[in-house]
């Protein structure tokens, strides 16, 4: 394993005093910030669209097996909302602005908002959306690499939870067959 060279203390102190208006973004930040901010805002839109879809499904799920699915829909909705808060916080740390404009959400979201008319359709649409998030977040993690480890770790954490959501939806779908 190759060790990265360490900067001496005086240089670290001197650099920290430069461009202090950029907050957490220091000279050592090597990612393409406009691209990272775009990806974060796309992920924010994805999480908000997923939150809205899960929340709708929680309220409208009916049928004999709906109570188990509805419980998962509610839990996932809450987690998607938490993801959106984490993404918005990171956007702010990088000097961007989180875009919560409802008119922009479906345009930027990787996942679609499909209401679904039956419980089975709702589960399928949630599973499809989770699979989209998994693939897109996995690509973002690879893109970020070591250029922005903080954002990469954030996406890795969200990705792990999206994989759990997909497993939950796949299990419910199997029970509906």
TrEMBL record:
Keywords: Iron, Iron storage, Metal-binding. It holds the Pfam family Ferritin. One of its GO terms (molecular function) is heme binding. Fe cation binds at residues 47, 83, 130, 162, 165. Residues 30-177 form the Ferritin-like diiron domain. One of its GO terms (cellular component) is cytosol. The keyword Phosphoprotein does not apply. GO terms for biological process: intracellular iron ion homeostasis. This is Bacterioferritin. It comes from Pseudomonas delhiensis.
